[in-house]
Amino acid sequence: MKKRILFLCTGNAARSQMAEALATAFYGDRVEAVSAGSRPAGWVHPLAIDAMADLGFDIRKAESKSAQRFINEDFDVVVTVCDSAAADCPTWPGAKRIEHWPIVDPSFGEDDPATRYDRFIETRDELRRRIDELMKTV
Question: What are the sequence ranges of the domains in the chain?
């Protein structure tokens, strides 16, 4: 049986969307990954879509979902990928384990077109490293 992982961030627009896609792409044979937001933005950030496309993964049809959708479901691991989501959801009913990854929102920072996309790539790559480590214990 596959392990279930929920990735939570505030808006479910970038970090948790990329984490869901990465976990599914690289470990989909072992896990069922989903993502949600404590305060969903209602859209997925275009640069998150582009960063995943650079690896060959299409998340254009991903949707920003509310954490409430999953509140009554059981998960082996719930991962908050930002401080705000950790504050909004410090516990999770039905979670066997909760992890917190304080990853800065890549949409924050200097609004320079030359560096904005790089932040999304860095975030994606950090998520990949952390997911690889997480999978050693799931």
Answer: 3-134
